[in-house]
Every structure is written in C-alpha cells, then in structure tokens.
Design brief:
Strand order of the largest sheet: 10-8-9-6-5-13
Shape: elongated
Strand content: 15-25%
RNA sequence: AGGGCUGUAGCUCAGUUGGUUAGAGCGCUACACUGAUAAUGUAGAGGUCACCAGUUCAACUCUGGUCAGCCCUACCA
C-alpha cells in the first residue's frame, strides 16, 4: 500500500523525517558509503555562537547544504566538519557589556583570567539554538566533532602557520611576518586598532556633521618666504582646511601640491577685521571669496558682514616655490616642544596627493593622525610632535592618548575627548556642552588664526561595534606582508570559479590587485596569542610554531632559571598515529618540581624568594641603573618610604620580583608601589601584564602618579596607610587558610590553568604571557602582547581543523597536519555571504597562497544579503527581523529553502517575504503532494505495486507516457548541467516548471481517465509506471534543496517494495533518497520530436479553449469538428500522433486538416529579419513592407520554385523560402484563433445529438458532485433516479449507458417524483437527482 | 570620491550570440473546469524595458553619459 494523506503539512513531514534521519543515522551513512578517495571537499566557515542565528544563516547554510547533498548523490564523499568561531572583538565587547566594565577595567576590576573565562563561557551561549536551527533547517554537518578555534590544537596549528610566514622571506630577504609602526584606524571606545576588514563592515562609514576649520598659519619672514612679502609688516598667512580641528595642536607641516598654482590674496580676517594676506590655491579662491567682492575697498568691511572684500595681489606661485617656507606653530604645546621640532617642524612640504577639489589646496599635516600625513612627514624628514617618551628612546607620545583624550599637557584642551561622541550621552546633551573641535575653533577665532569655522557634512569611519568614530592613531603592529604576494594571489584567484563571477573578478580581484599588508595585531585578551617572544630591546626574537617547540624553549628557559616550571612538562608526546589529544600530554598540576624545585631549595634568604638567583643577577644591573636615574616622582616617593618611616614598614626600592623590577616593595605586606610617569599611558599593555604577574605571585600593586606625589604628598601617605592596614589583615587570613600559601613563592609561580586537572594548559592569555623564554644570548624574551586578528583563525581552518601531527612535524613534512588533511585540501567548494569577500574568502586565499602557493578553494558561491520584503536591511531597531524558528515551524524547512533558492539567484539580495514561501508551498509542494496522493489513491485501488524488474519498455508505452518521460530526462540533463555550474536557481526553476506545467497540468490531467477507468490493464500499468518514475526522479532531483519532503515521498513510494528491493539489491533498496545514486541523464529517453509535437498539441488545445471561451461554449459540450490549416506535411504527421489527445482534451469529435489544395487556406508572409537583415541592410524596412503584402500566389511561387526576385528601390534581391515566415490567416467563415504559426478553427454548430451529449456530460458531473458531497467511496456502486425534466429526457435516453458507466451506477431511472438533491443544470433548469449506494 | 552589481507589469523575477506581438508566477477582474481541490484552465486589465545620446537596416539587448538603489573600496585635508 502507498500511504495516503488528507492534507499537506510540511512541518509535520519535517519532524517525521528528522527523527528518521537521526534514528537511522542517514547523514553518517550518506557520507560513509562513498569511497574516501572520491572526495568532494567542503569547508564550513565557522559561525560564532555568541549571537542568535538569523534567517540569513538559513540562506547561507541552504546554499552550503544543497551542493554537498547534490554531490553526495553524485557519488562523492562529502565530509562536513562543523566548526565554531570563538574569538574576537564581538565576544569581548559582549562580555564587557554584560559585566558592566570597559577595556580599561580588565586587569583591574577583573583579572584577565576571569575575563577570558567569561568569554569562554559566553562564546557558546547560543550553541544549542544553533544546533537546533541546524537540525530543523536540514543542514547536514558533523556537529559532534567540530573544530573550535579556542582549543589548543587549533591554536598551535595557527601558530605553525604564522611561523611559516615568519620564516618565509621575500626575494630581498624580508620576512612575511614583521613588526611595524603605522597610522591605523583605532577605536578609543573599543580600545583597539581595527583591521581593514573591520573598517569595511557595513554601516562603518556614516555621514556626520563635524566642525571644519580653515586656519591661517602665520608665515615667518626669512629667505625662503621673502618673495611672499610686499613689505616688512605685512601679515602673510597660509590657509589650510581641516575637518578635524582637534589635530591642529599636532600640526607640524603644511603640504602643498608642487605643481599647483597658488595666489596671495589681500583681505581681512573675517572674525577680527585685521588686514591679512592669505595664500591658497588659485583654483580655490572662488571657494572662499565671492567674485562680486573682488577689489572692493578693504575698509568698507565690518565684522559680521557677509561681503568680504579682497584683492588678488600675487599670482603664479608654484607649490614647489612654497616648499621650505616656515610658519609659526598654530597652537603650541610647550611640553611637546623640542629643539629638533623647532628646527625642522612647521614648514611647507610637498605632497603629490594634494588636490584642489576641496579646501584650500594646502593640507594641514599632523603625522600621528593621518596615514598620508605620516608618510609625507617621514619623507620630508619632519619630526613628529608629542610628549617626550622617557623610557623608549623612540618616537614621542602623541598629544592624544589611547582613550581619545588630549593629554593633560595640551593647554586649554588637556583632558578633553577629541570627539564629542566619546563623552557619555548625558554630557553630550547638556546645553552647555561644546565639542572640542568647536573650542579649538573658538580659540583660533579669538587669536585671529581662523578664516572660517563652520559645520561640515561628510562621511567618517566608525567603529563597527561601538558605533563611535574611529581615530587614526600611531600603533605598533605585527603585519603579514601580503603585498609581497599580491601578484601571485591575483594569479591564483584567476583559477577559482566564483559565483557570481563578478565577485571574483571585480570585487575580490580588484581588492587583491591593491593589496595592503595585513595588520594582524589586536590589543585584546580573548584570542589567539601571537607566538612571538622578544627581548625587551627587540634585538632577539623567536616565533614559536607548536606547543612541542614551545615546550622545548621553556626547558631551555628553565635551565637558565627564567621560569618556575614547565607547564608543558612532560614534553607532549602524542601518539604516532596522530590521534592523540594534545591536551593529555600536559601536566597541569605543580607537583613536579623539576630542576626548578631543586634550585629553589638552595636559597633560603628572603632576598631571593621573589625571583630566581639567575634572574636576580641579570636584573641587578638594570635595578642599579634605575636607582641612579630615578625620576622626580620616584625620588619623592622614596623620601616618604625609606627607613621604615611609614608606620615602620620596610620598603625596598627597585627590587626584582619574578622578571620585573618593582619601583618600591614591601615584602612583608606583599605590596608593590609603582610611580607612574606619563610613559605608562603609552604602554598600558605592558603595565597590565606586570600587574597580573605580580598579582599571580601574591603581590598587590598600587600606582601613584608623579603629580600626586609631587603635589599631594599627604593624600598619598594617607592612602598608603589605609592600604597597608588592609593588606596586613588580608595576608593574615590567607596564611591561616593556607599556611603554605604565600610564604612559599614556588607554589605561586606555578602557572595556573583554567582547566580541571589533567586537561592541560590553556594557551590563552594571561597564562601564555607568563611564559618567559631565553634568547640565544641568554636574555629573557617576553611574549609580544598582541593577539592576532580572528580572521586569521578562520582563514587557517583548512589546516587547524585537523591539528598538527607531531610525527609529520618531526619528519619535516611540508604539511604536517593530521589526517584526513591529505584528501581534504584544497576545498572543492565553499559558500558564504558576500560580506565575507574581504573576510573569510580573503584570509583562506591569502594564507593558502602565501604558505603553500595554492588556492584554498576551487569553487565558491557568495550569497547576497537577506533583506526584509521592502528591500530594507533587517535590524533589531527597525523591528523587521525575521525569526528563523518561526518561519521554519510555520512553513517547514523545504518550502523556506526552496523559496530562498528559487526566487532569485543566491548572490542577489533576497527580499524575504513569507508570501513567497506560501506560494512555493502551494505551487510546488502542493502540486507534487497532490500528484503523489492521486497516484497513491488509484495505485492502492488497483493494487498496483511498482516492480523494478518488470517495467514496460518505453517503446510500448503511449505517446503521452513517452512524452513525459522525455521531458523528465530533459529535466535531468538541464538540472544536472545547472547544478554542476552551481546555478541552483536555474535548477529549481526547471523542476518547478516540470512539476507544474508538464507533469501535473498536462500528463496527469490528460491521464486521469486512464487511472480511474477499468481494470489494471497494460495501458494502465504503463501509466502507473510512468507516473512512478516521474515522481521518483523528481524527488531525487529535489532532494538537495528540499531534503525532507523528497525523502518523505521517496519513502512513501518505496515502502511497499523495500523488502524486495533490498533482497534483490535494486536501485530502490536505499532507506533514504539521500543514499541513492543520482539518476543519469539518459539521452535515449529524450525524444525532441515528440516534445515538439506535444507542444503543438498543447498550443492547439489552448487555442481551441480560447475559441470556446469567446463563443461561450462550455468544454463539456462536445463539438463536431476542429480544423487545422497546415503549411507542410511534417506538421500533419506530427499532429496526427497526438490527435487523440487533442480531441479528448478539447472535447471535439474529429480533426480535419486544411491544406493548400483545399483552396480555403489564406497565407500571409512576414519578413524573417534575422536572415534578411544581413542581406538587405538599409533596404530592410521597405522589404518588410513589401513582403507583408505578398499575395497567396507570390508566396506559393516562392515555396514552389525556391526563389523569388523582388525589386527594392532599384536593387533586385532574390528571396529564398527561409527569408519568409509564412503563417495562415483566419479561415473565413470559421471561428478561429492563432498563435504564431498555428491556427485553429472550430466548428461551433450544435446538433441535437451534440446537445444531448453535452447534457449527458453535465448530468455526469452533477452526479459525481453528489457522490462527493455524500462522501461515497470512489468505488461505491450507486443507483440514480433523475426527475423527468424535458431538458434531459433525450440526453438520458441516448446516453444513459454512458452516464451509468461514468458514475458507476447500477441503475439509472427517470421518475416523475424524485426526492433527492436539487441540482442546477443551467441557468434555466433545476431538477432533482437522487443518488444512493446500491 | 572610486569600483562592482542592480533598475523590465502593482509585487517577485525570466528574457539565450541585437531581429519586429517583451514573458512567467503572484495579486486584481470575469468566465469556465473540478472523480488531484489550500488546486486548475481561458480571457482581460496592467510596460515609454529608469532616463538621455550614440552605433546599426534593426537596441530591453551593444557603447557612452545621467539618475536611483544596494554592496564594496577609501581618513584627499
């Protein structure tokens, strides 16, 4: 029996099939049954589970899933290892938000360890929701063994890849991984630099209104500037425009275009009325002066006037002539002044990038806050402006700190945020609040240094998470030298098959062509630590490529006494098979003292308990030096603390603890007192590690600022006293709880791990920062504190998802990754949103290209965005976000998936409208469901069971059967071609077309009678077999996109024959459609001639129906004759084959061809523009008119002789038959209609007999309706009594037998009195019919 | 600002190498059909193929420009 159903309910089907898949492990089997060597490699771009899945994830995952399923059916083994992206700023920011802290609080209010633990627990928060969504949408992936980017094996593989880059060198010997200093986008609000990827997140560039300033820089009179002066007292100024007035205190140069022409204009300062001569580009004069005001008397101006008189007094000043001109510093900061700056700063320099499209043609240049500025100053040898940087001999500290505040030393504006957005919203809203830019503007106005201060609208980049403006800021960073591999990456890209192609050639290709170095550094906590250790001076460094290597280095460091113990001890020793878990090799407990323990025993004195003797010896020199060169603050503090002055507590100064030197320390109270100069603002990272490490060994660290000690001595003393008391108490409690505790330094040097015992060491911060290595020259090396860009994490997934194989690594294998890496690289196919073009797509490509000179993927589909139905982006604030769970529950996964794939190409943006899903459900799934149910209903009645070994040969089947089979296999060919080209939309639409147009509305409709009439004869069996094959093949083709419904149908179709199929090992033996082999495109089953003539039949029927409609003759009314004018014999032969179909479909008794010889045919001709156009050229138009007027005779002559000469404007052309498109015109005297070359005429004369037959058919219909209303079984026999009404008597008498046969009536009687249903036969006649089961 | 994509019926989308009636589905109107019925058929209304120019005998299609939308790139101050 085939299962029959009452209603289509896709969500119920989903649930049933989902359960079946899980119970029977269909996914696992679908993968495993294919041979491993025949792999179709798919990479899963890892999602982050810290946000809820959205409807766009359903879109992206449908694309991924369907091509994996499709290729599985094609016989490939398609492993799909799931993955989770677990690092990155979004997670950190979320944690900060939830804990109510900012980045500055990390390491203070909360330890890095706690913070990272919070990240770790947050990152998988919505894992369950994701997995639920994954299952419900039918996304097949291995969720049990995902790769997780925070796991040690993943991290160490990323290290390995970094090391490969570190070791790789360009032709001129530069490493692919290097440390540099550049001006980068920096988000003070998020406390981090931003990568170019992040700067390109959607919504980053926003239109904002800022305050712009045109400042006037007063020229100093000297040899270089002399030509600019007319007389000694003239006030000559250079005008420069800026949209960031807050950078004006940092101005050190003005940049001009060497080739640009500048002019000097005599005018007045608009704000003070003072006479002034300004220099600006000639092309920009009109931007600041109104031509009407030219040469007006200067003394006519009053402050506040709109009209500013002016006079161009000097023209033709080349930019190059201005270079070297010196000017007075605009807004001096005394603390930042240096002799060097005074000597070389504040002059005009050249820059090719200067234009005259905007501003004044002179660019205010502040090197720390602009990439162009930075380059220009470096080239011109202009020093940077900033506070002296005491400890680092390097560059001065910028006048703006990392929080986006002016440093205190900046007069007037010190301590103010440079962008108003950094202030809390309440402050911004205060009526008295003035943005810093405005204050700067006001200062300039007052000082007669401003020409124009006004609001200015422009787009400015914003931090994609905090939505606050970005600053360009000088940052130390590690870079990947991607620019060196630019050409090769571009070449490799050309071998990748992109969908859509334009993304690959255009968007991605052009990006590669302009590739910049990849900034890897992130000043953050939760991410993969950069595996580079350096000596403090940066002279020696090491890049670690594995935990094994790190362990070896730690051993060396141990011997040198750099560290307390080796957390990686014993040396990790994964099993040779590569199966071992790296974690298991690590010792987490500190029982094993090793060498370290032994040497600690030898030292008894308190003195050395804070560090190892060797380190002590090493640091001693530094400490001594620091004591000598102490700062003013340190000196003042020492005065307060020395000689047990403070409550009798003993303090030491410049004392070594671990690998740091503390400014002051009380060993008794375990308290470190640090005195900070401003240098510490520049290196918060370093301070933080220091604090963390000191905390880790039991010391509390407090800090005082220089100015506090110098200015508020007693306040500092009070604070210290309070802290000392508290410390004393705390230490007593700790000692009581744990007598060993803080006394034993060794115990605390054990590096902690967040994992339970035995699970190993955590490679994250802060633990990794505690690892100190020793350089070849015997100096300590500290880890570079940066984390790496999370995009590197995901870009390294082809390797890191498997992890390092130590055996291979030891053998020097070029690709030392665990199995099955060998058969899993590169990917055959990946798919992700188009927004990943510069993200994952790029990082995959870049890493593969640079490290292995290979592509990482061969085919890629980038899908577009999912917008709401109005084409607007979905966002929480708009409230137009679609919940994927609701959608899946309401419409089912298949309809949702199908809609998303078929509505538009996946790479176009999708305007998501549930109405579209509804349409898909009704049209495709509803139709197919009905078709299946129709099949099941009659197959069950007839006891039909499909028998794979006993199918009727196609040549013995009817025209209609062979036609639909031909269509079916044409579909298979089209479908496979489209899918192989990754064009799923085309594939889906082909299926829709087949199901709706061909299968349902033609084949099934025309075949209905075959199913319900008579016994299971040969023709009927053929019909069942044909329909079965159509359903079976269709369901297989649909399986990739609609995995639930197709499996449901497959299982229904095969349930009754499953046992037999299994026993005989036939193609239908599989438990699930997803385990089958995709049907082959069998050309032998395709008959194009048959498809053509069926197309004729469909068009003829359609035309006949349209005539009936026009003439208001219902289809049930039989007609005598249909006439077909024909032009050639081939048409007759073709139509003859489908004649029976046509006649029964349009309910006409006979078909008659009208040929030439009949004399009835009137032809007309139209020019065939395609062939004729090329031949005739300009005469085409005239020829078309001529041909349209051809007579029957002319056409006939051409057809007969094959040539006809025409004269067009004196030129004689010879026409051949293919130059004309001949059609027949309406037959005079007949009701006709035509469509292109086909014309149909109907004989609409109704005889008595025809009318009676029509009435009989009406009666059949009414009786059938009654049967249905009364819920009779389809097979019930009935008795019918009809009221004796004049309108039907003749029909019943003539066609009684026919009626009985049609309605399965055992008896049919006319009676005078019938008490049955009142039935309306037509507008005039209503009669009673009684129907009973007999 | 530059690059890419898109612009066809009220809506969602097709439209092959330029060729003379520009299509489908949904929606709307009317009629029909209904032993598949959350269907189906026929017909109707609905288009300056965003706009302007050019190439051509012929342009929705090719070229250039303009406008609008989206995405990407970009601190030109």
């Amino acid at each position: 029996m085939y299962r029959e159903f009452k209603h289509l309910n896709l969500p119920v089907i989903d649930a049933e099939i989902r359960q079946f898949w899980e119970d029977e492990k269909i996914f696992e089997r679908s993968v495993e049954q294919r041979p491993a060597e025949n792999a179709y490699v798919f990479y899963e771009g890892p999602p982050s589970a810290n946000g809820k899945p959205g409807i766009h994830h359903v879109m992206a995952r449908t694309v991924k899933d369907l091509f994996c399923r499709y290729n599985t059916l094609k016989g490939f083994r398609v492993a799909r290892k799931g993955g989770w992206d677990t690092h990155g700023l979004p997670i950190e920011l979320q944690v900060e938000k939830e804990l109510g802290i900012t980045k500055e609080d990390i390491g203070k209010k909360i330890s890095v360890e706690e913070y990272n633990a919070a990240c770790r627990s947050t990152v998988m928060r919505y894992k369950d929701l994701w997995e639920d969504k994954t299952r419900r949408m039918g996304y097949w992936a291995d969720l049990d063994n995902p790769y997780i980017t925070f796991e040690n094996s993943y991290i160490e593989t990323v290290w390995y890849m970094l090391q490969r880059l570190y070791k790789k060198q360009t032709a001129d010997g530069q490493s692919f991984l290097y440390k540099g200093f550049t001006i980068q986008p920096f988000s003070p609000a998020a406390g981090t630099g931003l990568s170019s990827h992040e700067l390109n997140m959607p919504g980053t560039y926003k239109e904002v209104t800022d305050i712009s300033a045109v400042a006037m820089f007063k020229v100093k009179r000297d040899a270089a500037s002399a030509p600019l002066f007319d007389d000694e007292n003239e006030d000559v100024r250079i005008m420069a425009w800026t949209t960031t007035p807050w950078t004006l205190p940092s101005n050190v140069a003005l940049t001009v275009g060497p080739k640009i022409e500048y002019v000097k204009v005599k005018t007045l300062s608009p704000y003070t009325g003072a006479p002034v001569s300004v220099v600006l580009a000639k092309a920009r004069v009109a931007g600041y002066f109104n031509a009407e005001d030219e040469n007006q008397p200067l003394d006519s101006f009053k402050i506040g006037d709109k009209k500013l008189p002016y006079q161009v007094v000097k023209e033709g000043i080349k930019g190059s002539a201005l270079v070297g001109v010196r000017y007075e510093q605009l807004l001096p900061t005394p603390a930042a002044s240096t002799p060097e700056l005074e000597a070389k700063g504040f002059q005009v320099i050249p820059g090719d990038w200067v234009t005259t499209e905007d501003g004044t043609g002179v660019v205010h240049t502040a090197p720390y806050f602009g990439a162009d500025d930075f380059r220009a100053c470096k080239t011109a040898g202009i020093p940077f402006i900033g506070l002296p940087n005491e400890k680092n001999s390097g560059l001065p500290f910028p006048l703006v700190d990392r929080q986006g505040k002016f440093v205190d030393e900046v007069p007037e504006f010190g301590g103010r945020y440079v962008k108003s957005e950094y202030y809390p919203i309440e402050i911004q809203k205060d009526k008295d609040f003035k943005p810093t830019d405005l204050l700067v503007g006001l200062r300039l106005k007052e000082d007669n240094k401003a020409f124009k201060i006004e609001k200015y609208k422009h787009t400015y980049p914003h931090c994609w998470r905090t939505e606050k403006p970005v600053l360009y800021y000088p940052l130390d960073s590690w870079f990947v030298r991607a620019s060196a591999a630019k050409d090769r990456l571009s070449e490799l890209n050309k071998t990748i098959n992109w969908h859509p192609e334009s993304t690959g050639t255009g968007r991605f290709g052009q990006w590669l062509d302009n590739l910049q170095d990849w900034n890897l550094s992130r000043s953050r906590y939760w991410g993969i630590p950069l595996p580079i250790w350096r000596t403090e001076d940066g002279e020696e460094e090491i890049c670690i490529g594995s935990v094994m290597e790190l362990s070896g280095e730690v051993e060396k460091a141990l011997k040198a006494g750099m560290m307390g113990s080796n957390p990686f001890n014993p040396t990790p020793n994964p099993s040779p098979s590569g199966e071992g878990d790296l974690h298991s090799g690590f010792s987490a407990n500190g029982d094993d003292l090793g060498e370290d323990g032994r040497f600690m025993e030898e030292f008894r004195g308190d003195w050395f308990k804070t560090t190892s003797p060797e380190r002590w010896a090493y640091l001693k020199e530094f400490a001594r030096g620091m004591r000598k060169n102490q700062t003013a603050g340190e000196a003042a503090m020492w005065e307060l603390l020395r000689d047990k002055q403070l409550d009798g507590v003993k303090f030491r100064r410049q004392h070594s603890i671990e690998n740091f030197i503390a400014d002051f320390v009380s060993l008794e109270h375990k308290l470190v007192v640090e005195v900070d100069g401003t240098i510490h603002d520049f290196q918060p990272e370093y301070d933080q590690i220091r604090t963390e490490l000191l905390n880790a060994v039991g010391f509390e660290v407090i800090r005082f600022k220089n100015e506090d000690i110098l200015g508020h001595k007693y306040k500092v003393l009070d604070e210290l006293r309070i802290i000392l008391k508290r410390r004393k108490k705390e230490l007593e409690t700790i000692t009581n709880q744990n007598p060993q505790g803080t006394k034993d330094f060794k115990a605390n040097t054990q590096i902690k791990s967040p994992f339970p015992q035995g699970e190993g060491f955590d490679l994250h911060r802060p633990f990794i920062d505690e690892v100190i290595l020793i350089s070849p020259s015997g100096r300590p090396m500290y880890r570079e504190t940066d984390l790496i860009d999370v995009w590197f994490d995901s870009g390294a997934m082809p390797y890191a998802q498997w992890g390092l194989d130590y055996e291979k690594l030891k053998n020097g294998d070029d690709k030392p990754f665990k199995s099955p890496f060998e058969v899993s690289y590169p990917a055959t196919f990946i798919a992700e949103g188009v927004d990943q073009t510069r993200g994952w797509f790029y990082t995959l490509h870049a890493i593969a290209g640079m490290v292995y000179d290979s592509v990482a993927f061969k085919n890629v589909v980038s899908n577009g965005l999912v917008l709401d139905k109005n084409g607007e982006k979905m966002s929480k604030s708009k409230g137009n976000v679609v919940d994927p769970f609701e959608t899946l529950s309401e419409f089912g996964a298949d309809a949702t998936r199908w809609y998303m794939m078929s509505n538009a190409n996946p790479w176009d943006n999708l305007k998501f409208d549930t109405g579209g899903i509804l349409e898909t459900r009704n049209k495709l799934f509803g139709t197919l469901y009905n078709t299946y149910n129709f099949f099941a209903l009659y197959a069950n009645l007839d006891g039909f069971k499909h028998d794979e070994f006993n199918v009727m040969p196609y040549e013995k089947r009817s025209e209609l059967d062979r036609w639909v089979i031909s269509k079916l296999y044409s579909l298979v060919a089209d479908y496979r071609a489209a899918m192989d080209d990754y064009d799923v939309t085309k594939a889906c639409r082909a299926i829709e077309d087949f199901v709706d147009e061909h299968l349902s509305n033609w084949y099934v409709r025309l075949s209905r009678r075959r199913f319900w009439k008579g016994d299971l004869n040969e023709d009927k069996t053929a019909a069942y077999q044909t329909l079965f094959e159509c359903l079976m093949v269709t369901t297989q083709l649909m399986a990739s996109v609609a995995p639930f419904f197709s499996d449901w149908m497959y299982r229904n179709l095969t349930a009754s024959i499953k046992e037999q199929a299994k026993a005989k090992n036939t193609p239908l033996r599989h438990d699930s459609v997803h385990l089958t082999d995709l049907v082959q495109p069998d050309i032998s089953k395709i008959d194009l001639a048959l498809e053509t003539r069926m197309d004729y039949a469909q068009r003829i029927c359609s035309l006949a129906f349209s005539i009936r409609k026009r003439e208001k003759i219902r289809v049930r009314q039989p007609l005598q004759k249909v006439l077909l004018p024909v032009l050639d014999e081939a048409f007759i032969t073709a139509v003859d084959e489908v004649k029976a179909l046509i006649l029964s479909e349009i309910n006409v008794k006979e078909l008659q061809y009208v040929t030439d010889s009949s004399g009835l045919l009137k032809k007309s001709a139209k020019a065939n523009f395609k062939t004729l156009g090329a031949k005739l050229g300009q005469d085409m138009k005239d020829a078309a008119g001529l041909i349209a007027n051809f007579s029957n005779e002319q056409i006939a002559s051409l057809e007969k002789t094959g040539a006809l000469e025409v004269n067009i404007k004196g030129t004689v052309y010879t026409l051949s038959p293919e130059d004309l498109v001949v059609v027949t015109e309406d037959l005079p005297g007949w009701k006709s209609a035509s469509d292109g070359s086909i014309t149909v005429a109907l004989d609409v004369n109704l005889t008595e007999e025809l009318l009676a037959e029509g009435t009989a058919r009406d009666l059949v219909n009414r009786i059938q309706n009654i049967r249905k209303d009364k819920d009779f079984n389809v097979t019930d026999r009935i008795a019918v009594r009809i009221e004796r009404h004049p309108a039907i008597v003749s029909a019943v008498e003539q066609f009684g037998a026919y009626i009985q046969d049609e309605v399965l009536a055992n008896s049919l009687v006319l009676a005078d009195l019938v008490e049955g249903e009142a039935v309306e036969l037509n507008d005039d006649v209503t009669l009673q019919i009684e129907v009973t089961v007999d």
